[in-house]
Amino acid sequence: MGLISQKIRLANAARPELEEIDANALVDSGAADLCIPELVAKQLRLEKVEERMITVADGRQVIVDYVGPIRVEVFGRTAFTGGMVTGNQVLLGAIPMEGMDVLIDPRRQQLI
Fold first, then answer.
1. Which of 22, 57, 91, 93 could cross-link with 35 by S-S, CB 3.0 to 4.6 Å?
2. Among residues 8, 13, 9, 7, which one has the least CA distance to residue 70?
3. How far apart are CA 15 and CA 64, in angstroms?
């Protein structure tokens, strides 16, 4: 299966008056959570909830900020979650996908 990208909308669920962000997310069913770059966390003015240790693709374990609350929207469906601040691209993991009741269609290589 190839890489799947999906346009999503992100917002600070605690501060609905702030501007929402449209992002092109990498869809990754092998990742549990939503991951966002530091710039996105700053733009949404998300609060740090705690630090968490994660394992990145090359096997290293790193400590990252966990921020929230984040409202994620795709296809008019919404989920509320937190996010790991890491990387340089938004990554949509399995937990927010489950919350929105969307899944990956491997034949068409898209989110449905």
1. 91
2. 13
3. 23
